[in-house]
Design goal:
It is a single chain. With 76 residues, the chain is mainly alpha-helical. It has one domain. It has a two-stranded antiparallel ribbon. It is rod-shaped and about 90 Å long.
Length: 76
């Protein structure tokens, strides 16, 4: 443990102190807060409306591809 000068006020503070006792300068940044969401740790929330639209688009795409394959199979 050593004493260093505060970059804000010039007072002395310990290297292990979280903040300066004179001015309150935060020597060490607090650890980031981790927020768990529906997509893990990304910070993004799933939008149920867009999620349903995406599923519907996928179903329609499969139906169209299936119909095209049936039509091609009937002509052979």
């Amino acid at each position: 443990m050593a004493l260093i000068r505060c970059p804000e006020c010039g007072g002395e503070l310990s290297t292990t102190a979280p903040s300066c006792p004179k001015c309150g300068y935060q020597q060490h940044a607090p650890p980031p807060t981790v927020v768990r969401t529906t997509e893990g740790l990304t910070g993004k929330f799933l939008d149920p409306v867009n999620n349903v639209r995406g599923c519907l688009r996928l179903v329609v795409l499969f139906l169209i591809v299936g119909l095209l394959l049936c039509l091609v199979g009937n002509y052979r």
